[in-house]
Amino acid sequence: MKYFDTIVVGGGMIGASIAYGLSRSGQKVAMFDEGDNAIRAARGNFGLIWVQGKGANSPAYAAWTRQSAKQWPNFNKELSELTGIDLAFEQNGGFDFCLNEVEFKQRQALMEKIHSDSQGDFNFEMLSHDNLKQLLPNIGPTVAGASFSKLDGHVNPLYLLKALHKAFKQLGGELITKPVTDINYKNKVFQVNAEMDEFTSAKVVLAAGFFNKTLAPKVGLSVPVYPQRGEILVTEKVKPLLDHPTGLVRQTREGGLMLGDSHEDVGFDEGTNIREIQQIAKQTITIFPNLKNVKMVRAWGSLRILTKDGLPIYDHSDSCPGAYAFSSHSGVTLAATHALDVASYIAKDGLLPSSLACFSARRFDV
Amino acid sequence: MFKSINSNQGELITIYFEGKTLNVPKDYNVATALLWAGVCDFRETTLNNMKRGPYCMMGVCFDCLININGMDNQQSCTIQVSDGMKIKRQVINSSGKK
Amino acid sequence: MNSAEYDIIIIGAGPAGISAAVLADQHKASVLVLDENCTPGGQIYRAIEKNQKSDNEWLGQDYQDGLPLIEGFRRSRVNYQHSAKVWHLSGAKAVHYSVNGKSHSAKGEQILVATGAQERPFPVLGWTLNGVMSAGAAQILLKESGVVYEDAVFVGTGPLLYLIAHQYISAGIPIKAIIDTTPRGNYLRALRHSFGVLKNTKNIFQGWRWKREIIKSGTLYISNISDVRINGSDSVASIEYCQRSKWKNLDCKQVFLHQGVTPELNTSLSAGCDKSWDARQVCWTIDVDQYGQSSIDGISVAGDASSIAGGVAAAQRGSIAALNMLYNLELISSGDRKALSKPFKKKLSKEMAVRPFIDSLFKPHLRYRTPQDNETIVCRCEEVTLAQIKESIGVGCKGPSQLKSFTRCGMGPCQGRLCGLSVTEILTKELEIREEQAGYYNVRPPIKPVTLAELASLDET
Prior knowledge:
The structure holds three protein chains of three kinds. Chain A is of the alpha+beta class. Chain A has three domains: 2-52 and 158-224 and 309-364, 3-Layer(bba) Sandwich (FAD/NAD(P)-binding domain); 94-149, no CATH class; 226-306, D-Amino Acid Oxidase, subunit A, domain 2 (D-Amino Acid Oxidase, Chain A, domain 2, 2-Layer Sandwich), CATH 3.30.9.10. Chain A has eight helices and 17 strands. The radius of gyration of chain A is 21 Å and the shape is globular. Chain B has one helix at residues 30-36, and strands spanning 2-4, 12-17, 20-25, 43-44, 51-52, 65-68, 71-75, 86-88, 90-91. In chain B, a hairpin with a 6-residue loop joins β4 and β5 (51-52). The termini of chain B are far apart. The mean pLDDT of chain B is 92. Classes of the chains: A alpha+beta, B mainly beta, C alpha/beta. Chains B and C meet through β1, α1 and β5 of B and β8, α5 and β9 of C. β15 of chain A pairs antiparallel with β23 (450-451) of chain C, so a sheet runs across the interface.
């Protein structure tokens, strides 16, 4: 039987960030990951480090997001120096397009609200079509404008995940590729069963995406999440034509474009919907008509983990102290704070700060 | 050098490669026409700037990508030549992006 | 506009697709044939109509034998769309394809995937240099345009390699050398299957005749080699081969590589058809029943697209699949299906009898299926080397999907066609697991890259 300070269940963006952060704090950590064909939300990540528009109804979430975005430059430096992996990190501001005047006015109101809630910490610009055209000359004639925020950026999400895994391993973390079948809490120790093997630890972090729903009740927690599918398209490599990430399109370091903005409520179907792909293609051409002859090389539907109110879940268990459950659909943006802050809360005294109390799943118990 | 073994190559048309005039059989595809004209360097790879040219000639490998009439990523082994076609070596330099 | 509806949609106009189309048409099924090339015939009978008019008899009798098939197809009422790029096939039997930059959709009661084969990747050091092409490419240049390269070196194993070399020599084109990588032990292993050869001596004798004539022509013929690599900075300067533990160098400017052919997997796999690892053919094959029916109801796979058996077998398998589809459409009875498929099955079994011998004889050595040197590029599109793949396996990567995420291997425009098999086998070797455990990429649409404008132009349904 193997003993660990903390067992992290889930090797996706959240699990790997926290597992890396815990190892970084000197803990003996095991990270459980599923095999090659696991349902993996991280794989479908768009790679945005995105602040604008988030948390309009939750100043706490908006602040949390900003905190992570501000930590990203140092986090990127630390992680790439440690692993030698270039994450293709860029944070020079992002655009979110408004297709018509109504959208433009609504966006402006939304951004102003977040700005005032943040007491001036969040800043933005609204760019009319003409102003936008000076920055992005290829913008389509019907685009009304865009919002712009300096804190927005992007990163290669797959390299981020790889770097987190590599750094975790370099710091002595143990990756176990087995599905967790059961968790028991006895005499202040967690017993984690994976296939035929048993592992024990003082703490357990559940970061298993949808599987959290099943595992959480075993440690006195509840994680009410549901899947939503989003389509992502990737094109062949093209010459550099977009210096900033946007809500719909970003150009990767390698030159390919990632496109995606769809929301489909379809359960656990990771397949691909041609109509959605067509919509994304149409929207892209509307915004950037010059992309019409660019070829899509891949498309895939991937699943996002959502809660009813769209906010993340950060919870600790009262009945099984030392058990935590985390769920979020912004694993990339929040990676920095997950690795640097959340992990150290767990490693130190095990208490989540009161600023995160509003993200407990208990908010859904009405 | 690639060459043709057919005594009669039929009608020739004019295409341009890097500004140079080439007279090529009209029923050739772009990749064949360029190989026949002595061009084997079609593009540079994005990451390591390696030189590449056609490999499979049947639309599978995508190594024969080239710029045709201003458009990058044209699969030259699947596109018929046409009179006046302007072809350029494809260089998509990703390091140009900071 | 609604998408067009057909009884049967056939993807691919090679021997399997054409045979199926003609037979289905004779039994009054409405048939749409979609093919990537501008003329029918597939790779094996590529440009056959054009070559018939000239006197290129060096292309060989087998090639010319394909003509009646094409003529029958031209005479049929089959709806034939050439230059059509099929970029999506759904399990619900909807097909999306584009012609001249415009997308169309069609629905079939029955779908036949007859997309043939592609050449197996041959990842040796230097295989991405300019001046290195596949032997299939040499054949396409010859058949379609009469374009050849004098003093090229042909490297590898498999019937196609001897065929193209023989065609070159018959046409009077000098070959600098043929480097035969057939492992010595294969001859012995193949002998165990020689009983099957007795049922179909024509195939084998023909191969021998080709080889004999190649050697007789005075072409440098190098065999019993244990390794090969290609040198050059941007383009080929020389090829090195290891013979009796000694490396030898041969200056050359053009190399044609070949290690046999493998099924075109992307179309079937993107629809969700089941596959299995075939240890004898050392590649994935699509699971089909005796009639070519795949694991997905209403989708059949025939010819080399399911497993490699060659052009003559493909024609039989196409016909048998057509009869089954006609039966599924209730256009013929089950008795008819049985009776009508008899002659095709008989001819097919004659072709299949010789496969164990051919497959064993030309089974490429593992070192030509997976690279040996760390610097060898595995994924040509994303320039991923063996060293990078090994590094990711070291980080904990367990399969092709994660490998793709970690290295970009298989993410490029060829969509894994030139690295997928190598990746399966590298994972198998490094992780000491079976090929079935290693698996293959999750193949998703588009089957071929498609422009945003083409996507946007898709007919509304």
